[in-house]
Amino acid sequence: MERTLAILKPDCTSRKLSGKVIDKIENAGFKIIAMRLVKLTDETAGKFYAVHRERPFYGELVEFMTSANVIPIALEKDNAVADFRKLIGATNPAEAEAGTIRKEFAESIQNNTVHGSDSVENAKIEIGFFFSGRELV
Ligand code: CMP
Asked: Is the pTM of this model over 0.70?
């Protein structure tokens, strides 16, 4: 079994879409192994997105990710990382395939509803960012 990290982003929680998005995630065969509601600070959002620090959208991204609560969710499934990226669709919702979460719900390339880890290695780091070992069932 593989694990990945999802984050329901501020555009998802503020529009009260969390239940609908979690429903799609569970219906696609993912098991929730840990979940919490968090309000990120400039410091925690900045640390999570440190890899994007030099990108022109970094400041706006941190502002967006701290604008409302987010819901990090650790998920488990065979091939979880790739299958979850497929379920959420392209970063830019205009390029996301029909049936994907971002195609259905995302507002823009920034307000794209949900995050998914991009590799098994990063999934481990990102799950550890939000959850301790004993919280993972
Ligand atoms: P995600 O892939 O989850 O993590 C990086 C985030 O940065 C991405 O989702 C978007 O929310 C945001 N992002 C990526 N590219 C752009 C862009 N060109 N303009 C604005 N935001 C972006």
From this structure: yes
